[in-house]
Specification:
The chain has 5 helices and 2 strands; from the N terminus they run H-H-E-E-H-H-H. With 168 residues, the protein is mainly α. It has a two-stranded antiparallel sheet with strand order 1-2.
Amino acid sequence: MSESAEVTETLLTKDLVEAVEKAGDAFEYLIVTDQPVDKPVKLNEATPRKRVIISLRLPSSTHTSAYEPTMPIFEYFLKMPDTLVATAHFRGEVTRKIRATREEETRKLKKADEGEKAEERRLEAEKKKKEIRDIRLKGLSAEEQRKFLEREREKGQKKQEKKMSRKA
């Protein structure tokens, strides 16, 4: 349920269990988090914001009695922020463990972001090299272009040979 049993014990109260049982199949989930619902892909998406999220299947009937099974869980959901403020005080060890988990995920996102930026820089450098090469080729005569391309091809072959000799 969470990173710590202490957090679970604090949040999973008798009232909550009873409300979930009354809701039955209409109850899907109740999330208490500081993270977005979907796993963040970018670093700016991982900015912590306290959230309490509930998901219920609404009955097809519009009659008010159809909503009665879900009323206790919905009422609990509405009271939950106040309850959390009053009771959600955890030991330093628990808080450190939760913070460490968050920081690890943040580091992973930073690393992925840096990898994407490095790839973008590499592609941009390749693009500039190609533009410079194309500009040089345009200024050459047909014979000079042929010689230039021949030298370029030979350089590429030498690089391939070096790679092959390193692997062997």
